[in-house]
Every structure is written in C-alpha cells, then in structure tokens.
Amino acid sequence: MRSISLTLSSSSKPILGVIALLISSWVIPYAEASEPDHQLWNSLLKSHVINIHDGHATQVDYRAIQQEAVLLKRYLDHLSAVKQSDFDQWSNNQQLAFLINAYNAWTVQLILSQYPNLDSIKDLGGLFKSPWKQEFIPLLEQTRSLDNIEHTLIRGSSRYDDPRIHFAVNCASIGCPALRAEAYTADKLDAQLEEQTQLFLADQSRNRLRDGRLEVSSIFKWYREDFEKGWEGARSLAEFLTHYRTSLGLTDNQKGRVISGEIDITFLDYDWRLNDKP
Which of 91, 116, 224, 274 is most deeply packed, by most CB within 10 A? Predict the structure, then answer.
C-alpha cells in the first residue's frame, strides 16, 4: 500500500489559520453553553427591586415584574434546561450562585401566581403543606420545592457550608434579608454574600442592642447550627455575631460581654408581610 504524504506550502498556512479560527469560534461557544447565565434575571432585579433604609432592605415591584412575566419565564426555562451532569462540572461558586438565583427567581414566580391577592407568602400554603414544600420547580432534572433547593441542594450539601447564604435567599417577606438588586455571579459571589450579611446585621429594625440584650432576627434561632459550624472560626452564635460587631454597632467591650454570655442573645418576631412596593 502506498503511503500518502501531504506537504503544505507556505501559501496555504494562512488559509489553515483562518479555518482553525472558524473552528474555534464554533467550539468555544458550545463549550460555554452549559455555564450559567444570569443576565436576564439581573436585568429584572435592577429594574424592579428598590433599595430602602440606606440599602439595608429592599422592596419588590411585583406588579412591574408581572408585566414582564415573559422575561421571567424565559429565565426560569433557561435554568430548567441545565442538566445535572453540567451542573456537577461547574465550580462551587458557579453552583451556589445558580442555586441562590434559582431560589429567588422561583420565589418571585410563586408570589406572582396569586399576586395581588395575597398579603404574605404564607397565604400560598395549604392546611397540610407550606408554600416552601410545594413541588413546582423543574430544576436539575427533577421537580423540586423551594425547601429542596435551600435545605437539600444548598444547606444539605457539604460543598458550600457558608452560613451567609441565609442573607441571600429571599422569602418575599419584610422580615427576610433583602432581595439583592442584582443577580449572584460566581466571580463576585464572596463579596456579594459578605455585603448582604453586613447590610442585614446593620438593620436596626431586625438586629440591635437594646436594654442590655442583643436582639436579633429569628433566622439565627431557626438556623443556629449553620452559624456554629466554624465559618471564620465561629463555633457559637455569639462568635458569629461578634465577628460582625461593627455592623451590629458593638464596642470591643460589648463584644466580649456577648461572647461571655453577660449580654443575652434574644430573638425577634418575624415580619411575614409581603415585601411589596407600596
């Protein structure tokens, strides 16, 4: 059998370079297609989430989002199209940003399902099932609930172990940490979570030193174990809170008294009213 030898002339090399460039332009977008894209959600948030109380809280213009329901559905369909195998290949930050955005976007969708005929997300629950347990979310090739996203995919995974997620996932209520007016993204995730935490703790309506007690949100009661797992060295709720003593307005002396137990930590009632724009 005769072998065939192919010799390229110098004049053919530029042509091959163009071909290689064209091939790469086809391959790269295909490789990136499975990565999360949150621009549509980001646009909706920037347009319809209003910062109040110096940025410590936000209100949501649900009526305006309702008028752009097609865009919200397009974003949710984009999330639903992601396969578990693709998700597993992302970085931890890509995964966590995806899950937080999914939780928040489907919470808004749940509110819109009955808006404006509700005063609280709790109005959407039934006698035997809370709104967070309703399985209506097609995500990662399963039909899931909000609880499944938060407690199984996020909190139940050993991949993340970041208690600051509690200041990012939003329950559509005044007592809840603010819905951030931008989407979470992998490249900014740590800074976004840190800012959300500081803003929430600095909100005197939900966390404050009063009458010799440190009164904090019930979030710290419900998820206490998450704040005591050693994040930034915090092995107690007191240590976590005093890590943010500046946000809470505590002096060094008060920080020590909180850690020693001299200043008691108590929990405030939660305001479940809808975080709607008046």
Answer: 274
